[in-house]
Amino acid sequence: MKIIFKSLLASALVVLCSGVLAQEAAIRKSLAERLPQLKSIDEISKTPIPGLFELRVNGADIYYTDAQGNYLIEGNIIDLRAKRNLTEERVTKLTAVKFEELPFKDAFTIVRGNGKRRLAVFEDPNCGYCKRFERDLQKVDNVTIYMFLYPILGADSSDKSKAIWCAKDQGKAWQDYMVRDLQVPAAAAGCDTTALARNVELGRTHKITGTPTLLFIDGSRVPGAVDAKQVEKLLSDAKG
């Protein structure tokens, strides 16, 4: 009896998988014909809404379509019963950054006190909110800050980031400019600044769209210029 049941279950799973693959193929074919400008679809999956499918494009861009690929929907799915933004949760999961996998070679460090607590920050030197954040961050002690220069606000941001990255003491140059309003000498010729381009690409991959953006060791992300008291709480929460 058990053998018969297992055989029936296996057959049912094969049929189910075949149906899912056929459905996915039909959606891909329909969208390719009707919307050729839509870039390669990474994944198609069912949503909690009957007949509605999720399209994952470019790693973490989320759209929705019907079973026939007649409609393309851009927006958020809100679970009203659970009061959850399912689209936002999905994007957050897809763009999550594992702290220990960050390319620390492309950042410089600022260590205060014993440096036991750790924090990564993406900032643009032309960001006014970043300057406010940096001045308040001076109050946070016993922390190691991994500073990822993230020049996304224009060509001048790139020039300033290169000057700071190429400085003999990067941490001092950064704080001289952001906290003490001192100018930083231009980057010397021949200085390797490819780390900055890698930072921009990393940020785009993980949907870091504004500065400052803070990343904590538990994988949590906080956008915006939070004050020192909030940073202390976030560091404590991340440590568990």
CATH architecture name of the largest domain:
3-Layer(aba) Sandwich
CATH-level-4 superfamily name of the largest domain:
Glutaredoxin
Q: How much β-strand is present in the residues? A: 15-25%
Number of domains: 2
User: What's the Cα radius of gyration?
Assistant: 24 Å
Silhouette: elongated
Main sheet characteristics: 5 strands, mixed
What does this structure look like?
The structure is a single chain. It contains seven helices and eleven strands. The protein is α+β, with helices and mostly antiparallel strands and 240 residues long. The strands form three sheets. The protein has a five-stranded mixed sheet with strand order 7-9-8-10-11. A four-stranded antiparallel sheet has the order 1-2-3-4, covered by helices on one side. A two-stranded antiparallel sheet has the order 5-6. The longest helix has 33 residues, at 2-34. The radius of gyration is 24 Å and the shape is elongated. The relative contact order is 0.11.
